[in-house]
Design brief:
Two copies of one chain form a homodimer.
Chain A (H helix, E strand, L loop, with lengths): L3 H4 L14 E5 H16 L4 E2 L9 H9 L5 E3 L2 H9 L5 E6 L3 H11 L5 E4 L2 H14 L3 E6 L12 H13 L3 E7 L11 H24 L6 E4 L5 H5 L6 E2 L9 H5 L8 E12 L2 E4 L14 E2 L6 E5 L4 E4 L12 E5 L3 H5 L4 E6 L2 E7 L8
């Protein structure tokens, strides 16, 4: 809807001149987050393959690769297409690609990128192979293991071995390794418990690798890890890649459990009504700011209470504002969940020292297919 | 992200050939909903001005107007722009438009549509007027009254009168009437209680009208009402317009309280993993289907339980499926909240007799500014 070109007029202006609600990305914090994560992975054996599903911006993916990332992880074929078109070659789709139409797209992509995809089912692998053969490509695959998240993935070593052996026999797919995502552990508040639960998942994953190798199946990649567990998975012997994504932009849910990156993202909003002494109505709501991981956090507004969130309105109660507020004034929120909030926006306004330095088109916004 | 032209290839095919997750709009149900609501308003004194914020599709707005609607209601200047560009002239922005940049856009719009906007603040009205005068237009306004929702709007008759008198003195704005939205009552499950609570709000609104008219302020429009209260507001003496929007596409939250329109909207998804006997993983999640009004409902799946909703995955447990399900099969959800679910999509697939007859671009998707 919003036009990038139109919005270029805002470049060079103070952030408060941006029309709201607007997604702001603080460039210096983003860059420090990328550098900090890169520094960690430069000191361990494991590689970083950051997840694209959070920021969905190819420009950030390229910054992550330049800082040392092995490649990029994403969740959907539509995201992988955006990455390939922006020149990112090494892409893991950490998800199942199902059905003829999507497998045809996958084969098409394999001509232009070194795509890897998760597989947990024999029929799916066979269909993928048949289409790849027909299109003259080979698709790289990882066997997905359910390491306790209770989502996709095979459950046992025997199932993994059977699937891996089938894959080895298929001409259109190439087995590269294993994947297991310990998503059920990444948000555990207590670090020691998070570490022990995460390690249980990693033990399962590495045990499957050992079993497969013992049975003659070579395993090159073992992929795991999120922003809440990257230090644990990144140091765990046998894990070769970590998929952390949220760290680049961060959000309050990860800060709440002590993940030490800066929140680089905010949602800027305007006071549109001030009906009573303590009540302020803001021009954001569920269509531009999510609450699926809890309420967002008002920045620099001690004592302000988010009283209600509607589609296009947020009502706050603020008894003793730290500054004099009036209709037209801007406030900012830190999102509780960056991934779902970013998904609502067509544009993000890149800010440094409170000045807009770029307007980026969210090229993969809504790329859920 | 997704291209409309590319998607035209799906027109004429069975709906199960659509790539998922996908938003489906059942054309016949939509048309029956529009006709049914039009029939109601043809029999009462009140006019219908349907809300655009639900479907955000100009093609539906034009169908509603053709069926007799007075004009269209929307929530944002960005939605009003989409409407004006699609030729809808009579548009109420049922919200405050704040700040110089947006007021300049409002004045620009007033050259191309008979725009009406809600006002609850003197400074805002004055700034609006000054910009309108500079641009050679007059902007129509409604004074918004807080009828108990505790959001925007002035609270008392005296405040309303003071604001109305200021507006009468301003050269760039034209007072057309009043608006009050009883949003706090539209989802009350018990009809009798909903009716009595709604009427309390309408009493307040009509009382303000009486007070203003007694004090020499002519009131032409009195706007209220939602899909949960249209029969109450539409028959209430003194209410001249109802803003109901959700009725066109409907959702399960409104069906739950007995609103008798058909659900015309579904989210189609594919089974991408079937790791154990009863467990199925679907390719939709919070990025394509919202749960801010409760979990969506699986269609034609008695006994299936939605076990988890992640960003791009839904896990369902289904002990005794009514049909044999396998990876690649399609399932459909009725959204619990149409407005926020539609907001996530770039395209909607228009279906009649299970065949795709059109692919519509959600022109106002993400139009929250």
């Amino acid at each position: 809807m919003s036009s990038v070109r139109y919005n270029q007029l805002i470049v060079g202006k103070h952030k408060h001149e941006i029309e709201t609600p607007a997604l702001l990305l603080y460039a210096d914090r983003l860059e420090r987050n990328i550098d900090k994560m890169a520094a960690f992975f430069s000191q361990v054996e494991c590689n970083l393959r950051p997840h694209f599903k959070t920021h969905r911006l190819p420009v950030i993916a390229h910054k992550q690769i330049k800082a040392g990332a092995r490649g990029i992880t994403c969740a959907k074929i539509s995201e992988a297409k955006v990455l390939a078109e922006s020149g990112v070659r090494d892409v893991l789709i950490a998800n199942q690609i199902v059905g003829e139409r999507k497998l045809e797209q996958l084969a098409g992509l394999a001509h232009h990128s070194d795509i890897i995809v998760a597989v947990d089912n024999v029929e799916n692998a066979s269909q993928m192979s048949a289409i790849a053969v027909k299109r003259g490509v080979k698709v790289n695959v990882l066997v997905e293991i359910d390491v306790g998240m209770n989502r996709c993935g095979v459950g046992t070593e025997e199932e993994a071995l059977a699937l891996a052996k089938t894959i080895l026999d298929l001409k259109g797919v190439r087995l590269r390794g294993l994947m297991g995502y310990e998503g059920h552990t990444v948000l555990i508040p207590d670090y020691e418990r998070r570490k022990s639960e995460c390690r249980k998942a990693l033990v399962r994953l590495v045990r499957v690798r050992d079993f497969l190798e013992k049975n003659g199946v070579p395993i090159e990649i073992v992929s795991a890890g999120g922003t809440g567990t990257y230090t644990i998975a990144g140091r765990y012997p046998g894990i070769t890649e970590v998929q952390a994504g949220s760290y680049a932009t961060m959000d309050t849910q990860y800060r709440k459990i002590g993940i030490d990156f800066e929140i680089a993202l905010s949602l800027m909003t305007t006071i549109i009504s001030h009906p009573t002494e303590e009540k302020y109505i803001l021009d954001t709501g569920l269509k531009s700011l999510t609450n699926d991981m809890g309420m967002p956090e008002l920045i620099e507004a001690p004592g302000a209470v988010i009283d209600a969130m509607h589609e296009e309105h947020v009502r706050i109660l603020w008894k003793n504002p730290t500054r004099n507020l009036k209709i037209g004034d801007k406030l900012e929120f830190y999102p509780s969940h960056g991934c779902t909030t970013i998904n609502l926006h067509d544009l993000c306004y890149v800010v440094r020292n409170d000045v807009v330095e770029a307007v980026w088109h969210m090229k993969a916004r809504g790329a859920s297919q």
